[in-house]
Amino acid sequence: MESRLQKSLAGLPLGGIRYLESTGSTNDIALAWAAEGAPDFSIVVADEQTSGRGRLGRKWFTPAGTALAVSVILRPGESERENIAFFSGLGALALVDALKNFGVSAKIKWPNDVLIARRKTAGILVETVWMGLDVESIILGMGVNVSPAAIPPETELNFPATCVQSEARGPVERFDLLHALMVSLVKWRPRVGTESFLREWQDSLAFRNETVQVWLGESETVSGVLEGLEADGSLRLDVSGAKRLIRFGEIHLRPL
Ligand code: ATP
Predict the structure, then answer these.
(1) Residue ranges of the alpha helices (H) in the chain?
(2) Quick check: CB of 59 below 6 Å from ligand 1?
(3) Ranges for all domains in the chain classified under CATH 3.30.930.10
(4) Spacing, Cα 157 to ligand 1 middle (Å)
(5) Which of 78, 114, 125, 213 has the largest count of CB atoms under 10 Å?
(6) What is the C-alpha separation between 18 and 41, in angstroms, rounded?
């Protein structure tokens, strides 16, 4: 498996590659590797995650042989440090772009999920390592359901789920998808925070011009028409004719 992975990624400007048959969470391995001085654009890939994480400690399921679990270690440059809020968008946008190679049209459920046919297919988890006031590393973790066996039982889901294979034109090999994803990351990373990045991110949003409901905390919700993104990556809703901005944070978004 590992040599197949190396072969699939040959020619990409990666800092290093670590492959694990099974691990708790690729983000945890990446955080530890970053602390040991992993070079920029190193990746950790696992066949199985036994305690993959979503936001706020929620679980992300990655059964063996079914999914892509990858964490990319980024050592941010000066301008990237000022654009940390865009990195979930970078991961999501790169995946949407990569999926086009497989005939799949995906959308981004702001801020951190990728949907196919309005069903969750991938989750993005960005974690940052601070050194004083500076961001030392960004860990861009991505979990993608590739084959149907990756999809968790419905009792575990708070949103309908699907996988790439169910929606693709032909067979999807995980490491081919990983290659396409890394190519897209190389393409989009230098554009993070630029107008073209924001435009593409906005064009890829799920539920655009539809009425959605956003949970802002335990009990506060706001409903409105999903208009698009602000220059800082916040989500803009139209609530009965008034603009309402939703900032990154603990939110859940659903179509109404
Ligand atoms: P929401 O969809 O409510 O906004 P979220 O984006 O906060 O949730 P994440 O933290 O990104 O969710 O992901 C964790 C949640 O995703 C889990 O609680 C579970 O419901 C769901 N989930 C876990 N594994 C998978 C998977 N392989 N495919 C689809 N959904 C999953």
Answers:
(1) 2-9, 26-35, 78-81, 87-100, 164-167, 174-188, 195-203
(2) yes
(3) 2-203
(4) 7
(5) 114
(6) 12
Name the amino acid, one letter, at 28: D
What is the C-alpha to C-alpha distance for residues 159 and 164, in angstroms, rounded to an integer? 16
pLDDT at position 249 over 90: no
Mention every residue, 6+ apart, whose C-beta is less than 8 A from residue 111: 88, 89, 233, 235, 248, 251
User: Is the distance from CB of 121 to CB of 52 less than 8 angstroms?
Assistant: no
* 164 touches ligand 1 (CB under 6 Å): no
- Ligand 1 mutation pick, 26, 108, 113, 120, max ligand atoms within 8 A of CB: 120
According to CATH, where is 2.30.30.100 located in the chain? 211-255
Q: How far is 186 from 180, CA to CA, in rounded Å?
A: 10
Does 211-255 carry CATH code 3.30.365.10?
A: no
What mean pLDDT do residues 226-236 have?
A: 96
CB-ligand 1 contact for 61 (6 Å cutoff): yes
Q: What is the CATH topology of the domain spanning 2-203?
A: BirA Bifunctional Protein; domain 2 (3.30.930)
* Residue reference for tokens 């916040």: 234
For a mutational test of ligand 1's pocket, the pick from 60, 113, 119, 155, i.e. the residue with the most ligand atoms closer than 8 A to its C-beta, is 60
pLDDT band, residue 219 (cuts 50/70/90): confident
